[in-house]
Structure formats: C-alpha cells, structure tokens
Please model this.
Amino acid sequence: MARLRMIRHAPALHGGALAGRRDVAADLGDGARVAALRAALGADARMISSPARRCVQTTGALFPGMDFAQDARLWEQDFGVWEGMAFDALPDLGPLSRADLAEHCPPGGESFNDLCARVWPALREIASGGDAVIVAHAGVIRAGLALVLDSPAQGLAFEVAPLSLTELQQIGPLWSVACVNWQAR
Model:
C-alpha cells in the first residue's frame, strides 16, 4: 500500500492575476496553520515538491531543514496566453460540461486532460516508492483525484484550498480517496 498525502501550496501572491506556470511566491504568514498542518503530517515522510517557488517555499515551511525532491511533472496547468491576466479579464467560456472544460485548451497552453496525462505517470511512479507527501497545485491535486476516479472531468468537481490535505491510497492496482481538502485549524 502507498499513501500519497497531497498538500496544496500556501496562498499564492499572484497580485490578482492567473498564476499557473507564472512563478510567484507563497504567503506563509499564517504560521499557526502551517504548524498545525506540520503536526498532522509528522516529519518522517518522503517529500516531493513542484519546482514552483510557492510550492518549494511551502515545503520548506512545513519541513524546515529537511531535504526534499522536486518533480517538474508536478507544475500547475499551463494556461498559455492567459498566464498573468487579471482574473476579471479572463475570457468567459460560457456554460461548459466538465468533460468539455477538461478538453478545453487555452491558447498556447494545455488542457486539464493534458495536465492529467502529464501528472498521472508521476503519481504512479511516486506511489511505487511508497508513502510520500507531495506539495503541489490545485490542478495537480485534482488530477490525482481524477486518477482515482478514472475520469479527468470528474477531477474538476473538487475544491482544493491552499494548505489543504488530500490523501490518496494505492493498494495494488486500485486507488482510493482517504480525504479531500482537509484543513488544519
């Protein structure tokens, strides 16, 4: 059995603009919440982070002084020309089904389906090494949930808050969800 505890990075200092691949810092000002999450995780885990600054900073705050690996496959979805656009300036896609939204590709970027195709092999590989804590992005965590559900579209149904924990378990070829969006208080 392998347990993947996936943590979304601390709130991104994005300045009100989309930051998928844009490398922005994390707001780690809520030290009590970081400490509570650290206590819940323990300190004996294998740790892997997205190379994004906000994830590396969050991992360092959760596990100060400990070594951790970085995996470029765990970057957030590439939103192409939308990167850096103010949230209120993003195009209105209208009503889309989850399947259509998963298929939609921003100009010059990648679709959620593309993200899943990139992330799923990474999660399987990480799980093959046993338990791990992964600090990554909302899209990556949704891709993990989509892996369990065998459906990228269904992964889009989940809320993933900053500094929340989502736990996936793999027993043989079967995956399950132990918790989603748990937040230390």
